[in-house]
UniProtKB/TrEMBL annotation:
Coiled-coil ranges from the UniProt annotation: 169-196
Source organism: Kineococcus radiotolerans
GO MF term list: diguanylate cyclase activity
Entry-linked SMART domains: GAF, GGDEF
Descriptive protein name: Diguanylate cyclase (GGDEF)-like protein
């Protein structure tokens, strides 16, 4: 006959307890924590003069043995015990200590699998607590009946309290580290989002300014080339007016994807206006930049974009240290203006 369990906690409370168990198992094994627990259970077995002592946690399916001495096989190797064979589960379910002087004569436990199959004779287990939850037990056991003294039980109670405090501290540290990692990830993503165009995923003006400043600083130290190509979608207003802004957004998104797939890994694509993009080209002279600009025009214009025939105009310039960074954009913008004028005249012709 097995002991009658008290009423089970609600699903939310048990879910919280199981989450705390998971954290405690990790905390108990982290940074040599398992070695510390192993020393404590060995000390308990030695002081109490019992063959078995252990720290274990109770999950939904099994007892996880975190540290132990004297367990018989196969449990010593498996490091887990079915709940049907666990006496420590009664500590968790009863939310308090379980003390058995002679389990084989105890009507509530004499038919328990821990007694019949594992040979438990005497048992004393005290709760490992984390906040409001009992996660497991610090216990000692003998294969023969035993009279636990008050000092024996006080020692187990104190050791359980020590382990509970240590695990709570370790769990708290792990939670803080996890929170810090989440905060760092959130900060990184917010930083990235603040420098990214929401619609197209390309960089935005802020990112362009930062990257340009970095490139110029590098050029001042080491020399080299830096080019910029501005890209303007021809007659984009007509697409918005005829097909609507949703189609216009789809056109811009697909153009950005085609441009991104065409440029090199070191290059930076940015959306710098409603229908205007820029490509920063480090270590690129004017001839190479203009060659890439021709490829970009073709990659957009050779196939319909979101179902629409679309062309782009480009203007390319290179950085001149004597004329400054603002002049780079001005030169590229002037080249773009000239290219759009040429296209307009060609269309009129």
């Amino acid at each position: 006959m097995s002991p009658s369990p008290p009423p089970s906690p609600g699903p939310l409370a048990e879910a919280e307890r199981l989450a705390a168990v998971s954290g405690a198992v990790r905390a108990g094994a982290a940074d040599g924590g398992g070695d510390g627990l192993q020393r404590l259970v060995a000390m308990a077995a030695r002081v109490l003069d019992v063959p078995v002592a252990m720290v274990s946690f109770i999950t939904a399916e099994e007892e996880v043995i975190q540290a132990a001495v004297g367990l018989p096989e196969p449990w010593a190797s498996l490091r887990t015990t079915p709940l049907s064979h666990s006496l420590c589960v009664q500590v968790v379910r009863g939310d308090g200590p379980v003390v058995l002087f002679d389990a084989r004569q105890d009507p509530a436990y004499r038919e328990h699998a821990a007694v019949l199959e594992m040979g438990a004779g005497a048992y004393a287990g005290y709760p490992l607590r984390h906040g409001e939850h009992v996660l497991g037990a610090f216990c000692a056991a003998d294969f023969a009946p035993r009279s636990w003294s008050e000092d024996d039980l006080r020692l187990l109670e104190d050791l359980a309290a020590v382990v509970s405090t240590e695990l709570t501290l370790r769990t708290t540290v792990q939670e803080l580290e996890a929170s810090r990692a989440r905060l760092e990830d959130l900060t990184r993503r917010l930083h990235e989002q603040s420098r990214t165009d929401v619609l197209t995923g390309a960089a935005n003006r802020r990112r362009v300014r930062e990257v340009l400043a970095d490139h110029v600083a590098r050029l001042e130290r080491h020399g080299g080339d830096l080019a910029m190509t501005l890209i303007d979608v021809d007659s984009f207003k007509r697409i918005n007016d005829v097909a609507g802004h949703r189609t216009g957004d789809a056109v811009l998104t697909e153009i950005a994807a085609r441009l991104q797939d065409t440029i090199r890994r070191p290059d930076l694509l940015a959306r710098v206006g409603g229908d205007e993009f820029a490509v920063l080209l480090p270590d690129t002279d004017l001839a190479a930049a203009e060659h890439l600009a021709r490829r970009l025009r073709h990659v957009v214009g050779d196939e319909p974009v979101a179902g629409w025939p679309v062309t782009v105009s480009t203007g390319t310039a290179v950085y001149d240290p004597d004329r400054g960074l603002e002049q780079l954009y001005a030169d590229a913008d002037a080249a773009l203006y000239e290219a759009k004028g040429t296209r307009a005249r060609d269309d009129d012709g």
